[in-house]
Design a protein that fits this description.
By secondary structure, this protein is an alpha/beta fold. It has 11 helices and 22 strands. The chain has one domain (7-412): FAD/NAD(P)-binding domain. The chain has helices at 18-29, 59-68, 71-74, 127-139, 186-190, 247-254, 258-269, 317-337, 345-373, 378-392, 395-406, and strands spanning 7-8, 11-14, 34-37, 54-58, 79-81, 83-89, 100-108, 122-126, 144-147, 152-158, 161-166, 171-174, 176-179, 195-211, 218-224, 227-234, 238-246, 276-278, 283-292, 296-297, 300-302, 308-309. Strands 6, 7, 14, 15, 16, 17, 18, 19 and 22 form a 9-stranded mixed β-sheet that branches. It has a 6-stranded mixed β-sheet with strand order 9-3-2-13-21-20, with helices on one face.
């Protein structure tokens, strides 16, 4: 005789990373009972060097964090992004320092947000601090049941629900299973959903640096022959680097002696922020594009990297997962209020239709930009430089790109507008 489920409710979420925790809070606010499963102890994710990464939260993502009660825990650790400068990087080597090149596309938050303290283009936060804030918000919501550390082994769908079986013999039951388990999602593989995509032969080298001059809330994204080089502002005269290089070069830089790394850093970073020094460990992550042919099946939905993984040059990976969570929670919450089956394919298709266009647009855009800019072909270099300068002169185009990156185009879910899902 089968023993009873450890959880028998509405939604089971497999994967307790940033997207999974955000979704749990959104589902709870929408009035659904939620179980969250992750392979790691939640507290383990607070380690200072958990993965080295930082994320740029679009202003609509921040509105959602405010509505979910996350922002109050995160705000002390954030840096406002006031400007974004996109440009071809200057050549480096010899007596030519690196840094931003002459052709620049400048995004200024004052074009879309009024007032000295108006809404910024985004907020930068180290992932460990985002995790901390999400965990604090989850602890304040007793309706969210956390199972961690616990590994999901398999799932089984049935007529009126779905069961997630854990490696330790326990199982959780719900009407809907949501996979937030990453780009190699075991739940997606079990469902037999194919993916399209490829590896870029590049890795993103991630490191934190401290510089002597203030960044003034400016984020830089400039393109070198090896790939994008992003300088993302953090509090206290620090910046998070996402430095793209071919696989072998990135691995060598990650393990290079400090003096060698310092020299290579200065060659690319330049001196426009004064002296720059690395701070903390370095990490290297393989880069690729992966896109699932479907974002749902009967009783199973896919969120975040389980639905698609894109190149980080636009800093949109985590934001896409947040938008997924906002849309799915709204769809499922509305279905519950009108008496529909929250795990039925007809219900989940609404979520898929809502999210696929935005996902495909960003996936294609980041892929094209990476291929266009990751080279040193002189005619192409001149053409793209002129293209950046031209767009920079067209105000409506600049504002459109800012709003698109912010997640405000199309029909944003309520949470991205800062509206709570439990409000009348």
């Amino acid at each position: 005789m089968m023993k009873s489920a450890e959880f028998d409710g509405d939604v089971v979420i497999a994967g307790g990373g940033l997207a999974g925790m955000t979704l749990a809070l959104a589902m709870d606010q929408a009035g659904l009972s939620v179980a969250l499963v992750d392979a790691l102890e939640i507290e383990d994710q607070l380690a200072p060097s958990f993965d080295g990464r930082a994320s740029a939260l679009a202003y609509t993502s921040w509105r959602m964090f405010e509505a979910l009660g996350v922002a109050e825990f995160l705000k002390p650790y954030t840096q406002r992004i006031e400007h974004i400068l996109v440009c071809d990087g200057r050549p480096y080597g010899g007596d030519k320092p690196g840094g931003p090149g002459p052709h620049t596309l400048h995004f200024d938050r004052r074009e879309i947000s009024e007032g000295e303290h108006g809404e910024p283009l985004g907020w930068m936060a180290e992932n460990r601090h985002s995790r901390f804030a999400l965990i604090q918000a989850i602890k304040a919501r007793p309706g969210i049941k956390v199972f961690a550390p616990a590994r999901a082994e398999r799932h089984e769908t049935r007529g009126d629900g779905v069961d997630l079986f854990l490696e330790d013999g326990r199982y959780l039951s719900g009407q809907l299973l949501v996979a937030c388990d990453g780009k190699f999602s075991p739940r997606r593989r079990q469902e037999g959903i194919r993916t399209a995509g490829w590896q870029y032969g590049q890795k993103g080298l991630v490191a934190t640096v401290r510089h002597s001059e203030p960044h003034n809330g400016v984020a830089y994204e400039y393109f070198l022959p090896s790939g994008p080089f992003a300088i993302l502002p953090l509090p206290d005269n620090r910046a998070s680097l996402v430095w793209t290089e071919p696989d072998a070069v990135a691995d060598a830089l990650k393990d290079a002696p400090e003096a060698v790394f310092q020299e290579e850093l200065e060659n690319r970073f330049g001196d426009f922020l004064g002296d720059v020094r690395p701070e903390g460990p370095r990490f290297a992550y393989p880069l690729g594009l992966k896109y699932a042919e479907r974002f749902c099946e009967e009783r199973v939905a896919f969120v975040g990297d389980a639905a698609r993984g894109i190149h980080p040059l636009a800093g949109q990976g985590f934001n896409l997962g947040i938008r997924d969570a906002a849309a799915l929670a709204e769809v499922v919450g509305e279905a519950r209020r009108v008496g529909l089956d929250i795990g039925a394919l007809l219900t989940l298709r609404r979520y898929e239709d809502w999210r696929k266009f935005d996902s495909a647009t960003l996936a294609a855009g980041t892929d094209i930009f990476n291929r266009l800019f990751s080279n040193d072909i002189e005619p192409l270099r001149q053409l793209r430089g002129l293209g950046l300068s031209l767009v920079n002169k067209i105000g409506p185009a600049r504002r459109f790109f800012m709003r698109q990156a912010g997640g405000e185009t199309g029909d944003p879910p309520r949470l991205l507008k800062g509206q709570r899902l439990d409000a009348a």
